[in-house]
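Entry type: protein chain
Record version: 2
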Amino acid sequence: MNRYLRQQILPQVGADGQARLADASILVIGAGGLGCPALQYLCGAGVGTLIVVDPDVVEQSNLHRQPLFGENWLGQPKAIAAQAVLQNLNPQVTVQPHVMKLDPVNAISLIEQADIVLDCADSFAASYTLSDICQLHSKPLISASALGLSGYIGGFCASAPSLRAVFPDLPRNSATCATAGVMGPVVGTIGSLQAQMALNVLLGFSPSPLGQMITINFSNFAFGGFRFDQAPEPQQLPFAFISDKQLSTKDLIIELREEDEAPRAAHPEAVRALVSTFEQQQITPKPGQRTVMCCRSGLRSWRAAAALREYWDGTIVLIAMGDEVTADTIPNATPDTTAEALV
């Protein structure tokens, strides 16, 4: 029996639609709570190639919301575990794992290989980086975020406005699933909707999910949404994220993490400062000098950049250093798998 018979019966799919899925390549950033259901359903649907990017290993605290994995995968890289499980689910699908952290350098080559990008990283630094590059290359971006009992899913770029058009500013706090908590069915539902959005784009559904926002609050089962096809792109030059590999000795590099958080600064010549330093206008870069704001998630960097922009109009870029990934934290890692480590 044809593995895809039940979906090929649909008039929106058929044999031609199934062939389109088989020829497609989808880049999935993050194999966590959002990525697990998205990967399972895309693989089951017969998407030809899935490119999976994740720097982390499977931990026991992941299992309540990442059912792609089991106890036997504890301590192993998520991207590698996902490849093994998905190949067993559907051997007709090619799964390419990358045990590395996404950054503005490696993101370009990864996005160029894909027809659609799924942002399952739940990191606003990754989301803005993906949106900027997808917009430049006219690639559809399905981005989602989940926290606690609520979340959203949106279709951005290509024929739709970018993520920056809908979210021109970062949130006021950097709460994550690790700090604020999340329930498994919440991310499971949202990740599944990401997969369906991607399939709708590949199959040419009308109206397109690009330009569509869906919001969900599971505390009262309130589902909302709106179209943002006409949302204007920000007029002011946005703060772009770069990689620490792109630093120059000519830059004014600001390390916003304190020494107890980051004993080793982002660069040997980095100047340690606080967001309040720029709110009080205590540092002014030289004319023509690029200023690079560095912190863990990008939130402090964004706030410091916004404060500096109030009194200085030069180039400001941001770096989200993330949590350091080393060979010690990735079992059986090689220099190749850790040297590329991500946001």
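Comment: The chain has two domains: 5-227, 240-339.
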